[in-house]
Structures are given as C-alpha cells and as structure tokens.
Design a protein that fits this description.
Structural class: mainly alpha
Strand content: under 5%
Distance between the termini: 46 Å
Largest sheet: none
Length: 227
C-alpha cells in the first residue's frame, strides 16, 4: 500500500469515529439518531443532550478532521506522485486526507454508515490547512447565526464563503501560500454541504426550520425530560 492509499484509508477510519453517537450512547445511553432531527451531528447533540455533550461532540468532529489533514496527511512510506505545475502536491494530499475524513464522518463504518453532515469535520480540515481563512469564515458564521438564529443557514453561508475568502485573499491580496486546489475543494465542499442540507433548505422555504431560541447554555431535551 502506497503513502496516498494509506493516508486516504486512515483518514476515512478517523473520520468514521462517530463522536456524537458514542457520546450519546456511552455517557447518556441515548442514540441521538433516534431523537431531535435524527442527525448524528453535534447540533443535534446540543438539541437533545445539552451543551456539555454538544461541546464534546464538536471537539471530536473538528479534531478528527484536523488530525486527518495534519498528522495523517504527513505519513510517507514511499514517494508521492509528481505534482502538476499549477498545484502544490502537499496541499492536494492534505485535501484528499480531509475529504476522506469528511466522507468517513458522513458514512461512518463504525456506525452502520449513518453519520452527520460533515460541517464540523470539514472545519477541522480547513483549520489545519488555512487557519486565517477559517477564522474569517467562523466570524461570518457567527454573524449569520446571531442575526437569523438558524444553524443550517449559517453553515451553508459559511461553506460558500470559504472559497470566496480564499479567492479574495489569493487574487486580491496576493497571498501565494493559498493553493488553487483550495478553491476547487472549497467549491465542491460548498456544493456538498448544500446537498447535505437539502431538507433544511426545504424547511427554511416552508418556514418550519428549527431556530435557536436563545444563546444560553442548552440543557437539551434530555434535561427537560422529553426523552
């Protein structure tokens, strides 16, 4: 097995760690996929189990994406393919590792291929590659979330703002360290996030999407005795 194949495999396995599912099952005896929005993501954990479980799930989801794009992507057991003149091979390897971890999160082998939507894992990947861009995107996410109280809308806007921010920083501010592969990945990632949120889009149009009622620490449905 070559370096690239090993990186992809290990990244997928790391991404498959179902943090939200295991946090619910091990600490609370609850499968979050059977409650709330039935999604195995940190947002649903916040909704169902409260802020402590939600933060832990978020840390796991972000962490496995960061792990894949940083540590796992650095594994070398043989020579890597030669790079095209217009791409940086190291950036491509990091992105391939990151994409594998996101796929693992969405279709985890450890949880019968029923995972989350991949936003937090993707955030971890992109933090490992371009932290400055991600801080800008997170700022945009926070503004949309506070002004609309829709997590889904904030996530989708942030996803599309990532390639936009990369393009602005690279071509307007001439930051050469940002590789073109980030733009390609960013556009594909944004489209994938849009597809994963298609049910949220429908509910947003119908006016039935769940909003955050307040920004106090969430106790979850479990804390209110609803599950």
């Amino acid at each position: 097995m070559g370096s690239l194949s090993l990186i992809v495999l290990l990244s997928y396995l790391a991404g498959s760690i179902p943090g939200s599912v295991w946090v619910g099952q091990i600490l609370y005896g609850v499968d979050v996929r059977q409650h709330g929005s039935n999604n195995a993501g940190a947002t649903n954990v916040f909704r169902v189990l409260g802020w402590k479980a939600g933060i832990l799930s978020t840390m796991i989801d972000v962490g496995k994406g960061f792990l894949a794009a940083s540590l796992i992507a650095s594994i070398r057991i043989d020579d890597l393919p030669s790079q095209p003149a217009f791409l940086q091979v190291e950036s491509v390897i990091c992105l391939l590792a990151g994409i594998s971890s996101i796929i693992g999160h969405m279709f985890p082998i450890w949880a019968r291929f029923r995972g989350g939507k991949g936003v937090n894992t993707a955030a971890g990947v992109l933090f490992a590659i371009t932290p400055t861009t991600m801080f800008i995107v997170i700022g945009i996410f926070a503004i949309i979330l506070v002004s609309t109280r829709y997590v889904s809308l904030a996530s989708m806007v942030a996803a599309f703002m990532f390639p936009t921010t990369v393009a602005i920083r690279k071509y307007l501010f001439d930051i050469e360290m940002l590789d073109r592969s980030l733009l390609v990945f960013g556009v594909l990632f944004a489209c994938a996030i849009l597809y994963a949120h298609r049910s949220n889009i429908r509910r947003l149009i119908e006016g039935t999407e769940n909003q955050i009622k307040h920004f106090r620490l969430a106790h979850g449905m479990r804390g209110r005795g609803q599950i």
